[in-house]
Design a protein that fits this description.
Layout lengths: L7 E3 L6 E6 L4 H5 L4 H9 L9 E6 L2 E7 L12 H6 L3 E5 L2 H4 L3 H9 L17 E5 L5 H19 L7 H15 L2 E6 H7 L1 H7 L9 E7 L6 E6 L1 E5 L8 H4 L7 H15 L5 E11 L11 E2 L7 E2 L7 H13 L5 E6 L3 H7 L5 E4 L2 H13 L5 E2 L17 E2 L8 H10 L8 E5 L3 E2 L9 E2 L4 H12 L3
Parallel strand pairs: 1-6, 2-4, 2-5, 5-6, 9-11, 9-14, 10-11, 13-17, 14-18, 15-16
Antiparallel strand pairs: 3-4, 7-8, 8-11, 12-13, 15-18, 19-20
Length: 466
Amino acid sequence: MSEKTPLIEADRGQDAKAIHLVNSDGFSEWAKSLTGTQRAVLEAQKFTGGGYQVGIVPDDDGWFAVGGVANPKSLSSWCLAKLAEELPAGTYRLAEDEIDKGVAPALFGWITAQYRFDRYTKDDDATDPRIFLTKQVSAIDTAVIEAEAELLVRDLINTPAEDMGPAALEEEAERLAKRYSASLEVTRGDTLEQNYPMIHAVGRAAARHHAPRLLHLTWGKETDPIIAVVGKGVCFDSGGLDVKSASGMMLMKKDMGGAAHAIALAQLIMEAKLPVRLHLLVPAVENAISGNSFRPGDVLKSRKGITVEIGNTDAEGRLILGDALTRASEEKPELLIDFATLTGAARVALGPDFPALMTRKDETAEDLIKAGREHDDAPWRMPLPEAYAEWLKSDIADTNNAHGNSYAGASVAGLFLDKFVGEGIEWAHFDTFGWRPFPKPGRSKGGAAYGLRAAYHMLRARYATN
């Protein structure tokens, strides 16, 4: 996002245009306070108080804005987003102090609505920012750091693979390490092949400047509870020798979306100074095609010692995650969370808006779903049925990486990952799309975070101190 001007500021009486929030039920009563001319102007704009409607009303020598919301007394993350997208550049505040008292959730959407991905082109339609003033000063920092994390995910996913390969993900990890005084260890080359053989196998066919690696960032006091966050970093997925179709490859720059989520969650944890010992692990690869590509029918060793027969080279994300989850488990974390753009089956089941969530414990799922609902980012739980584990059986290895039928693809992928998570570790797996195919207020088309705020607020509920 190019603009660096703060989009939310403390209200200290600066000049600003007023915004009135109404809903369709209360619009008629509210409109009685307007002049006939003002009501006629709104009628001409077909404004009725419906959700996401925006109106401009003349007022003496100036004007004020009016926005339609579901409930002015209970604002969501997106209540102000359409206003932030459509109003002229300038400075704004809510007209009613009582509504401003509950504005905190909507500050996030005010910022995200103004996102533009302009790395490669000048946006001739871009405008100066819309700045929002609020008296809820304590809510500003929270909204800003959460929005920054959301926009980081968007930027990373939207960037094409040539400029967002494994080396670029390493640069992002270096940025985090420098900003938060964290330690970063990068494993590549022969050391990667010896210690993380599945990560190496998946990434070995890529060009040298996209060579595979494992990024491992650590932060926090060693005496604090250990939390591990893992993200699938397949920076481009051709499908390998089980090559995808042209249409299937079109969005594969987003296959590192899990890594983007994991990096953003790590940023949130460190920015909030949560009292945890954080381990962030990102296996970063490109699943390319060359003479040394791993093949269907090959048997790969893993860091854990499990041997894996390759039933499909396009089921590569679970392979690199297997080695990373094994390494994360060696730290004996009390909670391990992974994010991955893992299966098309999850999208068929849930569409793009809901990340599939799989957990070992009911309590883990309940905590994440509760946090997500409270912050407009709810995941949807899917099962890990042991009855389907037999579908991963191999005749020549400990397991296959893909099953031979079309059923329960997301759950079977989750069962594969479960083999590599240490015994007794509380674990949550997000199978996320990482992409918004259709824009909504505050949520642009393109790279998108799903489950990020759910995970962050679940961690805050567990670990934040006053």
